[in-house]
TrEMBL record:
PANTHER family: D-XYLONATE DEHYDRATASE, D-XYLONATE DEHYDRATASE YAGF-RELATED. The active site is at 516 (proton acceptor). Belongs to the IlvD/Edd family. Residues 407-606 form the Dihydroxy-acid/6-phosphogluconate dehydratase C-terminal domain. Homodimer. Mg(2+) binds at residues 81, 123-124, 490. Binds 1 [2Fe-2S] cluster per subunit. This cluster acts as a Lewis acid cofactor. This is Dihydroxy-acid dehydratase. It catalyses: (2R,3R)-2,3-dihydroxy-3-methylpentanoate = (S)-3-methyl-2-oxopentanoate + H2O; (2R)-2,3-dihydroxy-3-methylbutanoate = 3-methyl-2-oxobutanoate + H2O. Its cofactor is Mg(2+); [2Fe-2S] cluster. The modification N6-carboxylysine is found at residue 124.
Length: 614
């Protein structure tokens, strides 16, 4: 029998002081000897995806207590990327992932907790908590706040479903009146929950299902629906059971590193590629794998992208499907089941809720299951009534089982035989870069054009809005990588403004920064190595021709090796000014400089590498 970690502070005469303090938190004599389970909440009033989580930690805690555990709740931070977007605030977004992971480690190790329930939702919170779960390797269950309902509005006489990206694009579109922009703004984000498209938050919450860490429906069941409550209740019950299995029955298969093993990462990546997840998932999966010492790399992602079909297009890749529609079609398990029918899923990995992924698919695939519970869960619909109240409506609709034209397609009707995310390599990105092909019009899968160079996101926004960018250009934004930014900003404003200017299908955008899940178009990010780490992207000059070939998975600048080498030598000779942006005024706080000093390349997940300290 494994010893409870918590016994360090709850057992033995010498721990009388610690027990005295535990008692002051509400523990009784009979509680010493029960597992202490950390309920890691990310409630904050700053983020729509988290405003409704305040009481949900205690909902989980109550279930833990009923099942025989001791629950202790604490909070992590959460940043709203949508509010932080487009200004210096975005520098903090990616680094917050490491702080969240550290917060969980600090609290759990300082107090010797035995297990975790992670209540996450928006962008960096789920990845930060996943990193912590893998780092700590103690039983962990994930449950997120759930997606926001899509906005519904009648604009210019047409009924539309929309989200915040539509409001952003509309705001800078010349043909749209202030009054219409106001309509977009007021209807884009009607409820609590993570923004309604296949953005980063929802992508990551879907991936927790495929990794085996969360219950079916976690990624897609809207925050407002009463059925979502069951996920919180069950998370509390499950974690106590997992504790029992690990600590009392020596069953290490319940530990995060057993669940999220290499095969589970392959499953998660296949899901991601099939659903056209946010490009940020690449960064986060690499970081999570690293924490768990799983040898899963960009090369694996590239390999999987070549034979994983693209089955699902959701906003921003198409306008009319949002997460609520993914759910209606069977959610993550609907997609996993289609992949499984093609033999593309490892069935023999354990999950927190089922003995194996294969067993879970059999139960939760809406097309083949005999379980009424599954059909009912996926019939949960949006209420279409503005609210911040979770679980406050019980609307249902019929399932979408149309695998030809519905929200989830089967293999036969795939959008493409290779997937919605691709890794490109070439002399501009020797360590790779990422593009969400799901959101790229097929007409521009190959593209070549002159580089228009911007040495910051701000300069790019100014250039695009100032009409300096023309159809056919490749907008190249550099020194925005993990080290160079620092913090690898999301470029949602430049990509949205290209659309506002009618250039969405006429230009490419290439950067060592990253994108929001709200980005679509020929937007290529994570170019590695980044400019600040002497990457070739730093050597490109205005007007150099850039060639992009998605089917061939290649990205090149039309320069010979000799020319690149010559420029590299010239750059190196520049001393202090070399490999730094020209004329960029940017205040970088000491906190961000600490992240910049330690971070690694996007190709390594932009995690901190303390081994550099010696
Ligand atoms: C809409 C975009 C969202 C706020 C985001 O930051 C992401 O998806 O990454
Ligand atoms: Mg984001």
């Amino acid at each position: 029998m494994a010893k409870y970690r918590s016994s360090t502070t709850t057992q033995g005469k010498n721990m009388a002081g610690a027990r005295a303090l535990w008692r002051a938190t509400g523990m009784q004599t009979e509680d010493f000897g029960k597992p202490i389970i950390a309920v890691v909440n990310s409630f904050t009033q700053f983020v729509p995806g988290h405003v409704h989580l305040k009481d949900l930690g205690q909902l989980v805690a109550g279930e833990i207590a009923k099942a025989g555990g001791i629950a202790k709740e604490f909070n992590t931070m959460a940043i709203c990327d949508g509010i932080a977007m487009g200004h210096g605030g975005m520098l903090y977004s990616l680094p917050s992932r490491e702080l969240i992971a550290d917060t969980v480690e600090y609290m759990v190790n300082a107090h010797c907790a035995d297990a975790l329930v992670c209540i996450s939702n928006c962008d960096k919170v789920t990845p930060g908590m996943l990193m912590a779960a893998m780092r700590l390797n103690i039983p962990a269950v994930f449950v997120s706040g759930g997606p926001m309902e899509a906005g519904k509005a009648t604009i210019a006489g047409k009924a539309v479903a929309l989200d915040l990206v539509d409001a952003m694009v509309a705001a800078a579109s010349p043909g749209i009146s202030d009054q219409q922009v106001g309509e977009y703004e007021r209807s884009a984000c009607p409820t609590c929950g993570s923004c309604s498209g296949m953005f980063t938050a929802n992508s990551m919450n879907c991936l927790t299902e495929a990794l085996g860490f969360s219950l079916p429906g976690n990624g897609s069941l809207v925050a407002t629906h009463a059925d979502r409550r069951a996920l919180f209740v069950e998370a509390g019950q499950r974690i106590v059971e997992l504790c029992r299995r690990f600590y009392q029955q020596d069953d290490a298969s319940v530990l995060p590193r057993s669940i999220a093993n290499f095969k589970a990462f392959e499953n998660a990546m296949r899901l991601d590629i099939a659903m056209g997840g946010s490009t940020n998932t690449v960064l986060h999966l690499l970081a999570v794998a690293r924490e768990g010492e799983v040898a899963f790399s960009m090369r694996d992602m590239n390999r999987l992208s070549l034979d994983t079909p693209h089955l699902c297009k959701v906003a921003p890749s198409v306008a009319h499907f949002h997460m609520e529609d993914v759910h209606r079609a069977g959610g993550v398990f609907g997609i996993l089941a289609e992949l499984d029918r093609g033999g593309l899923i490892h069935r023999d990995v354990p999950t927190v809720h089922s003995a194996s992924m294969g067993e879970a698919i059999a139960r939760w695939d809406v097309r083949s299951t005999g379980a009424e519970e599954a059909k009912k869960r996926y019939s949960a619909a949006p209420g279409n009534r503005p609210t911040l109240e979770p679980f406050s409506q019980e609307t249902r609709w019929s399932l979408d089982l149309d695998r030809e034209n519905g929200c989830i397609r089967d293999l036969e009707h795939a959008y493409s035989k290779d997937g919605g995310l691709a890794v490109l390599y070439g002399n501009l990105a020797p360590d790779g870069c990422i593009v969400k092909t799901a959101g790229v019009d097929e007409s521009i899968w190959t593209f070549s054009g002159p580089a228009r160079i911007f040495e910051s996101q701000e300069a790019a926004v100014e250039g695009i809005l100032g009409d300096q960018v023309k159809a056919g250009d490749v907008v190249l934004i550099r020194y925005e990588g993990p080290k160079g930014g620092p913090g690898m900003q999301e470029m949602l404003y430049p990509t949205s403004y290209l659309k506002s200017k009618g250039l969405g299908k006429a230009c490419a955008l290439v950067t060592d920064g990253r994108f929001s899940g709200g980005t679509s178009g020929l937007s290529i990010g994570h170019v590695s190595p980044e400019a600040a780490q002497k990457g070739a992207i730093g050597l490109v000059r205005e007007g150099d021709m850039i060639q992009i070939d998605i089917p061939a998975r290649s990205i090149r600048v039309e320069l010979s090796e000799a020319e690149l080498q010559k420029r590299r030598e010239q750059m190196d000779a520049g001393g202090d000014k070399a490999w730094k942006p020209v004329d960029r005024q940017r205040a970088v706080s000491p906190a961000l400089r600490a992240y910049a000093a330690l971070t690694t390349s996007a190709a390594d997940g932009a995690v901190r590498d303390v081994s550099q300290l010696g």
